[in-house]
Amino acid sequence: MKNTGGIGRRELLKGLGGAAAVAAIGPVATPAIAQNTPLKIGIIAARAGTAAYIGENGLRSAEWTAQKINAAGGIGGRKIELIVEEETNAKETLERARRLVLQEKVDCIQGVYSTGVSLPMAPTLEDMQALTIFWDGTTQDGVKETMPSPKYVFKSTDNECEAVMASLIAIKEFKGKFKRIAAISPDYSYGRNVWTAFKALNKKFGIDAEVVAEQWSSFTQLDFTSNVAALKAAKPDLIYCVLGNADLPIFMRAATSTGLTETAKFVLVQAGHQHGQLKKPFTPAGTLLCYNTMYFAKPNPSADQAEFVQYYMDKFKDYPHWECDRAYFAMMLYKAGVEKAMKAKGGSWPTPEEVAASMEGLEIQSFGGPASMRKDHIAQEVFYGGLATHDNKFDVCTLAQPYSYDASVLQKPPGADFWTWLEAAKFPA
Fold it and tell me: With respect to CATH, is domain 161-292+382-424 assigned 3.40.50.150?
């Protein structure tokens, strides 16, 4: 792995070895001309700032997945070499992506957490014909899709999936138990949109709840004393919290210390972003936790999820979250796309255009379950959430009764307007 962020080393990832790895990934026919040529995959992940915890999860998963693939013979007989760049702001990250394409000549770019970064990057990468699979980045401007028919850029599930799931579970579990609602969120389009979606779904399901407070924080804010005081003074029955970076556990500590968690129910829309940091003392049982597309304590997990979770907990003394799933999905989708295109060419190495076309409509097994890539290059995965319980062996909460929703239930169909779809959609009871 080559790390261009300062370590300055390059090496082919070494395989894990053993029959289990080969069985999990499976061999594929190898074109002789490619056997000794590394397959370069550029990884763009945040490793500093409030999103570092998220980027760290994704990068660790990408490394683990590449190791397993290499142990089983690589992709088309070519061993993966990861070249890592930092995700920061949109301008800097785009320059690093251009360097990966023009100087490192990577075969594929994977990564990116923030839509604030992926949205301005995507058109340039599309123009450069750079095969790109975003982990969590979209090309949505608010709720509007700006690239409905890309050829080379593949995107995350819609931004609103978590919010729709959070709202559906909150309504199912708490209907009749709240009349006064409040929100706290970073002041950006995602936060405002998902809060509006929650209010719209309340109305759709016949819940007449009064909005008593709306607290908007800056994206890098880490002191929530005044926000907690304002929320407590408003006396809500339910608080819809959209914080999801390092700000979330800090906010929950402050809310607990003032007794706010004793008087209001909490819906943590992005709990899965920080669940390893949401310790039991400041995350009450009964809090609604949304885990996105991977729940580390999922009952009856896939063999790969079980292996990865054990590896992650043993090595890092932490709990892997959904960005691990997104990185695994991106790598395995790319592998499946290459192999499908190679088969169609009788074993010859495919062009980026052929790989991209092969990935459309593909379904694979990701950590969280069946996952696919729609024809419009928007992913579909399974989302998890539920009410927190302390009845486990961990220092963090797990789910008393896990709920799962396929993204086909949670995101608008291709070409649809989000708000029109939300109003007309028939959701499961």
Answer: no
